Amino acid sequence: MLGLSALGRIEPGRPADLALFDVTGPRWLGSHDRLAGPVISGGQAQLRASFVAGRPIVTQGRLDWLDLDQLAADAERVTARLRRAA
């Protein structure tokens, strides 16, 4: 999409960083380039999948590898520590 030939290729067995957005909603209709919609139209685009070095990070819009309960507990603990320090 960016037209940068130095970035390489998307091929099986090669590492790739990709982000796949759902641009089928009404917000994206009538855009001169639907592929550029998440960049130029602003708003919240639904991230469906992302890969870093070929490894899936987001799948079906979810971070299955991330324990959100643990993340919330860690954030609360750090926030409480910052409040006490202030």
Automatic annotation (TrEMBL):
InterPro entries: Metal-dep_hydrolase_composite (IPR011059). It comes from the Bacteria. This is Amidohydrolase-related domain-containing protein.
